[in-house]
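Morning - heme C inputs below, output right after.
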Amino acid sequence: MDQTKQETRISTNSKGVDLSRREMLIGAGALMAGAAISQLGLVNSAMAAKVSSGAEGWPWPYEKVDPAQAGETAYHHWYKVFCSQAVTTGLFEQLRESVGEPWTNFPIESISFGAGGMLGWGLTCGAPVAGALVIGLAVPKEYSNAMIHDLLQWYSNTPMPVYVAQKPNYQGEIPKTVAESPLCHLSVGKWMKEADRGFGSDERRHRCASVTASVAYRTAELLNEWKDGTYKPGSAWNGPGTVGLPAQQNCMSCHGSDIPTAPR
Ligand code: HEC
């Protein structure tokens, strides 16, 4: 679809909905309800606790996970549920066994949307998205953000895939490529170009299953290091703080030498 058509479609879809006004009304309604409740003296600690109850007992208890087993499970689940749900399955499987609740109660299917960088949109690869979810559940905030940075850096800069399945569904060598990005589109696109294989090929499927396994393995390693007290955060990247908008670091790979600057 050309750009004009896409723009037309977007504006037709949103016709007649004045978002700014709708948001104002929702906001005002919520404020009024809040004021009424506090006037009645109904805002008490019990209610506050009810609202924030999702965070009770968080971060969740973590026991070390065998990275190779997490990788092998993730590899084989990729063929059924694709990258993001396969990573959660690989990591949750052992935690459900070793810790039990609350890991047993989380609906891991809920993250299946990560496949293909969110349902084929080519955004962030679903494997590190799912790895980040598990890190976020198990690790306190002061470490989890650093660990997610590390996972994205490693994903972007490593010749992938690194994990070799014990029982692979494709026998034979496939090339390794460096995505230089956590984006699904770039990661799988660069590999397909190098391998000269289509998206539906056995080689591409084996490649994405192996990348998924690699991410499950690496996430388990990072979590285990943290559990052992040996985890050392790498360097964090802050696009808005550094270049004035969220961005990958390697500007030139997309912009060439003509890198635009964001208004400050
Ligand atoms: C993965 C590819 C990619 C990377 C990496 C990337 N950009 Fe972009 N950026 C884009 C695309 C695509 C656009 C939209 C360009 C357009 O529509 O003309 C854009 C737009 C922008 C804009 C908005 C203004 C404009 O000219 O469109 C700025 C500012 C910008 N990028 C800065 C950066 C900086 C600084 C970096 C590195 C820190 C960076 N970008 C890295 C792909 C990228």
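Note: The radius of gyration is 22 Å.

O.
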